[in-house]
Design a protein that fits this description.
seven-stranded parallel sheet, five-stranded parallel sheet, binds nicotinamide-adenine-dinucleotide
Length: about 350
């Protein structure tokens, strides 16, 4: 199999090169993102491998299909950047549904602990021989309430971490997990009762801006919101307004609505044109990381391995356990397609 690998970073090569020979694949690395302009370079490749900020929209997928690409291998779990209706019956789409839920949940906890106890600011202060602790007061998390939105693989681990801190955990998920040691409540109750709110649901039309102006108003004035899921779960303009009005306590963000132009790049010598991003970075109670929650050795190893296994299964005409299409879920089950052939089409 020949794979065109878009949006490559040096650390991707480290993990994928280790496996390329073993899996008998030829990988051509491109350091730019996939989009309608760069899709032309997929000619003569069997598969295209992309990450979270590549754009597999209708126009791009049509070019890939015309170029003979048969497989789109996402080296991530989220798939909101793929137009599945266009891909259906043309290009199989596979992903890495689970690599290290602990990596993301632990990063969410890191954002929470840092924001609460201001260790990011203390680090800079003490480096400057400033040993004052003015302004660094936090709260005990023990005895407080965490609200987890989305109790899938990552949300469940985060809930467990909060339990470890001695917190009460409320959760909201349209598909509650039986036997999970959390109290499921409605979204409104979670927003009103939580001292910490962490987002772990996927980005879908239903969850876009789940944290909007109205919902921000329901939160406690000291509530810390953590988002390691997808940027567009939060309406950024509304968040900025809430932070300015001191309606909430702070925000730990690993993702941002308009991150694709900025995240993962060193732009230290450029002027940031996105005023909302710049404004967010001015708040002392906002901690922004650049979509790095997944970034552990264990997760990178697993991402590379599962991606290569997905490609191999496709090549060998085997069932594609990690394939997804727009009919997956209820519709797919009704038609029984995947159970019959192991593939979505
Ligand atoms: P998952 O599919 O295991 O869990 C998602 C959960 O969200 C499910 O339980 C689902 O029922 C629930 N959900 C769906 N709609 C909802 C709604 N309207 N309200 C509340 N809950 C809802 O996914 P996961 O592996 O736990 O990953 C969660 C998200 O984390 C992914 O969608 C991805 O966007 C993000 N992620 C981010 C990083 C990172 O590096 N920052 C890495 C991996 C995943």
């Amino acid at each position: 199999m020949k794979i065109a690998f878009y949006d490559t970073k040096p650390y991707d090569k480290v993990w994928f090169d280790k496996l390329a020979q073993e899996f008998n694949t030829e990988i051509r690395y491109f350091d730019f993102k996939l989009n309608a302009e760069t899709a032309c370079l997929s000619k003569d490749f069997d598969a295209v491998c992309i990450f979270v900020n590549d754009n597999a929209d209708k126009e791009t997928l049509e070019i890939l299909y015309k170029n003979g690409v048969k497989l789109l291998a996402l080296r991530c779990a989220g798939y909101n950047n793929v137009d599945f209706k266009t891909a259906y019956e043309k290009i199989h789409v596979v992903r890495v549904p689970e690599y290290s839920p602990a990596a993301v949940a632990e990063h969410a906890a890191a954002l929470l602990l840092t924001l609460n106890r201001k260790t990011h600011r203390a680090y800079s202060r003490t480096r400057d021989n400033n040993f004052s602790i003015n302004g660094f007061i936090g709260i005990d998390l023990a005895g407080k309430t965490a609200g987890v939105i989305g109790t899938g693989k990552i949300g469940r681990v985060f809930a467990g971490i909060c339990k470890g801190f001695g917190m009460k955990v409320l959760a909201f998920d349209p598909y509650p997990v039986e036997g999970l040691d959390v109290e499921y409540v409605g979204l409104d109750e979670l927003l009103r009762a939580s001292d910490v709110i962490s987002l772990h649901c996927p980005l879908t039309p239903e969850t876009k801006h789940i944290i909007n102006r109205e919902n921000l108003k329901k939160m406690k004035s000291h509530a810390i919101i953590v988002n390691t899921s997808r940027g567009a779960l939060i309406d950024t303009a509304a968040l900025i307004e809430a932070l300015k009005n001191q309606q909430i306590g702070g925000a730990g963000l690993d993702v941002y609505e308009e991150e694709s132009e900025y995240f993962f790049e060193d732009l230290s010598d450029t002027i940031i044109k996105d005023d909302e991003l710049s404004r967010l970075l001015t708040f002392p109670n906002v901690l922004l990381t650049s979509h790095q929650a997944f970034f552990t050795e264990e997760a990178m190893r697993e991402i590379a391995l599962t991606t290569m296994e997905n490609v191999k299964a496709f090549e060998e005409n085997l069932p594609l356990a990690n394939e997804i299409c727009y009919k997956c879920g209820d519709k797919c089950k009704k038609e029984n397609q995947k159970e019959k052939t192991g593939r979505c089409f």
